[in-house]
Design a protein that fits this description.
Elements (H helix, E strand, L loop, with lengths): L1 E7 L8 H16 L3 E7 L10 H11 L6 H18 L3 E7 L7 H10 L6 E4 L2 E4 L5 E7 L16 H10 L4 E7 L6 H21 L2
Helix pairs in contact: 1-6, 2-3
The structure holds flavin mononucleotide.
Length: 208
């Protein structure tokens, strides 16, 4: 069985405007992919390990090309657990509202934990090599405002950042479904934009 890991970075559960679109993706994905299982990682319900000095020290040991020394292994147990869960997936669905022009802090925390040398990327004579190969990813975002115009595009630090970090670790096939504006133009526009996003999400889910 293959596995789709659904990483959820909104605390709003049933009220979530982003999850409405991700659920449309899953409604189309599930019946079309009998050989896949679904695992959810709800970042607001996880006790993500803090990046203490030992955990950060470990990153520098790995960056120098050495293995983790025994005294850091225990501090790294949780990190390795999260890395293994991430790498055990064959595909990813990410649900992330825009928060302050970027991503919610729990998603940044998660990325700071899992994006580690030796596991998700490595340095080679030819530069950086991402190690998360042959995986597909759909990233569903929603935003209170609208960041598609020439004047507002530069404020969107969410899609460019997510594209950069996941490309850096080797994911080549990334599709975005952005719903916008969710809050700035009233409920009618919101519902219409969500419906359009759900249609795109359904078609991506079906042919994932
Ligand atoms: C802490 C916080 C920060 C936000 N920052 C922005 C922002 O910078 N730009 C924007 O357009 N919307 C912003 N919003 C609005 C959300 O992006 C929008 O309501 C989104 O649809 C919420 O998704 P959700 O219902 O799935 O949580 C913010 C919302 C919160 C709670």
């Amino acid at each position: 069985m293959k596995k789709l890991l659904h990483i959820i970075a909104t605390p709003r559960e049933d009220e979530s405007q982003t999850l409405r679109v991700s659920n449309a993706f899953l409604e189309a994905f599930t019946p079309a992919h009998h050989d896949w299982t679904l695992e959810e990682l709800h970042l607001f319900k996880e006790a993500l390990p803090p990046l203490t000095i030992e955990r950060v020290d470990g990153k520098y040991v790995l960056l120098s090309g050495k293995d983790l020394p025994g005294n850091l292994k225990e501090a790294w147990d949780d990190i390795i657990g999260h890395i293994n869960k991430f790498l055990s997936a064959d595909g990813y669905l990410i649900t992330a509202p825009m928060w302050n022009f970027s991503i919610p802090y729990v998603l940044k925390h998660y990325l700071d934990i899992i994006v580690q040398p030796k596991y998700l990327f490595r340095y080679t004579a030819n530069g950086v090599e991402g190690l998360v190969k042959n995986r597909k990813m759909v990233i569903v975002t929603s935003r209170g405002g609208d960041y598609r115009s020439a004047e507002t595009r530069a404020f969107d630090h969410q899609e460019p950042y997510l594209k950069t970090i996941f490309t850096f670790v080797g994911v080549e096939d990334i599709a975005f479904v952005n719903s916008q504006p969710m809050d700035a133009s009233g409920p009618q526009v919101r519902d219409q934009k969500i419906e359009t996003a759900c249609a795109l999400a359904r078609s991506l889910g079906e042919k994932f």
